[in-house]
Fold each of these.
Amino acid sequence: MQNSTVFSRQLAMDISHSSLLDEFKKATLQLRLHELEAQSLNILFAGPQGVGKTATIKALFGDDLVGDALSEQTASNSLEVSRYEKGGLVVWDYPGHTGHAEQDALLDMQLGATLTECDGDGTPLIDMVVVVLDAAERNLNSGYRLICEVIVPALGDQFDSRLVVGLNKVDAASYGYEWDFAMDTPSPEVEIWPESTASLLRHCMLDESGLEIAPVCYAAEFARKDDIARPFNLLKLVNEMVSKLPIEKKLMVFDAPLNNKTMAWHESDDRINYLVQMENNLFDLIYEGAKDGARFGGLLGAYLGKQGRELGYLVRRNVRRTLHQE
Ligand SMILES: Nc1nc2c(ncn2[C@@H]2O[C@H](COP(=O)(O)OP(=O)(O)O)[C@@H](O)[C@H]2O)c(=O)[nH]1
Ligand SMILES: [Mg+2]
């Protein structure tokens, strides 16, 4: 049996080879997977210059996605929107303000227009906007204004399910505090500054725009002593995205070329178990009617009996393989 790198295809193969699922269940699950995989996913990244939008895209979807694009060199500091595409995934890397008032106004207009664009059925072109802000920046005003004055009005009443706010560079924000190398986690102090910035932002957005959005603190390139930088809290960020996306788009995140570096998905604040949340999300998506992963005794799907448990096992195995968490 040949393995597939596409999540839903590998899962479909595993389902068809399973000896514990009956033929009817197999057919139901295959049909469901087939419905869910025939989609496209458009994610737009926006935010001021230098906050790490491109770094975030690379952290999530690997260097290849961005590297494939011809315009990489020219795009990084230009006014052009870069568009990266692979399979059903389309990523829009939107340039930030340059300080030139006229150009900036034009950029905002373009961004607003892209976000309001819909197809004939009224389905938006852009499924999700991820606004990246720099937690290390003392002044977050320009990013904040971008959210409140450009993005939220353009998203209209769907802003809640189409907007994720990320506070990047938590490593740089926590200057003075150290990574706890003995425990291999950030020391509690490392999180305090970005988290309080996140609550402040959340409060301001709620107050000004009625937006109930909790920014996710993360680092696309957590710089570590004597080691190459690697992401921190990436799983939390991607979880937030998957949780908000409409049902028919969720699986596409897994079918996208997710970063396949071994350590990319490992380090998180562990406030909740993001991997478990991800497994639950996927299980509920594929096994219609399931809730919270239908866990029994902690086992994914086990509440639904033998077949649920088998699907739970297959989902778990594939999630862990995709995110290198075996
Ligand atoms: N310390 C730190 N630096 C980062 C992080 N993410 C990105 N950077 C750096 O920030 C700079 C700007 O990143 P880039 O992705 O080009 O920003 P963009 O203009 O928003 O696309 C680069 O030098 C990155 O290496 C992070 O999590 N921590
Ligand atoms: Mg960039």
Amino acid sequence: MSITATNEFFPTQYWHVLDDGRVQCDVCPRFCKLHESQQGLCFVRGCHDGRIVLTSYGRSSGFCIDPIEKKPLNHFLPGTPVLSFGTAGCNLACKFCQNWDMSKSREMDTLADEASPLKLARVAHELGCRSMAYTYNDPVIFMEYAIDVATACREYGIKSVAVTAGYICDEPRRDFFKYMDAANVDLKAFTEDFYWKICGGHLQPVLDTLVYLKRETNVWFEITTLLIPGENDSDAELEALTQWVMENLGPDVPIHFTAFHPDWKMLNHSPTPPSTLSRARRIAMKNGIRYAYTGNVHDEKGDSTYCHQCGQKLIGRDWYTLGVWNLTADGHCNTCGTPCAGIFEAQPGLWGARRRPVRLRQYAD
Ligand code: SF4
């Protein structure tokens, strides 16, 4: 795949020239080594004039206002609207990708909407969004664009949310998350075998990202694990995963076990039964994780937040619709006073379960 003359060439920072003249991209652990005009595996970074450039800066595959619960984030400004967008490409090659039309796109015409960072932030503000989400495909591959949008958003008091697989090298990781307020990180499985054979990547860099977020940042983050029958849903793997989370991240990082539906190159697997999600949630809570959720299914019990001290239901949820709200104005259980981990306001937002597509070109530049 080669860069075409019509693409833009936005300069990037993390690369170096190899002895053989190729240029290595150092953003993610794939370390693509590229000849002039070649693109990396992610399709949006490539070698142009002897340096690595980003070819998707300022363009998006579409915008939509979502509930923040859809990211999923259950402990970050619940009930509020988030303006979501992605670009094209991805740095992993998951056979089960649930967003493959965007993440696997090699066609730059997927990027229909042009959007400068300032315009994006202004439109999000006009539409009453509390956050901007970099999602649909992994923002680490378009980090220069995401960082500029996040910087513009801060001027308007709009938070930034990364939805990411966390597959990124140390230095760009520090740079990228400096601009993020919250993240949902996919922990796709807990074996190197799964990461290598099914995603074409490695597990350890993802664990490094999670530990980095916990120990060295104030970014609020939650974890999502998509459970695929027969691939990553055994009791032993779920025990190991949740014990690792407890030991390395502590009890307060929420984890979402979500249902797989057959997609992309994994059409031969059946959808995840709800009982598997409930089993994973039970294992997580048995191991001490305070906030474990089921996702992509109707399960009011598994979707709601409970006080880990007295068991009171703190936030009722069914899919993306909020129910009861039993938190004090400063985020404590209103029965026993125990704090609930997360970023809360005195009242939940009122966005509900709506999804509203947004055409950027309808707004003034
Ligand atoms: S960000 Fe893209 S070009 Fe860079 S190493 Fe990763 S896959 Fe390759």
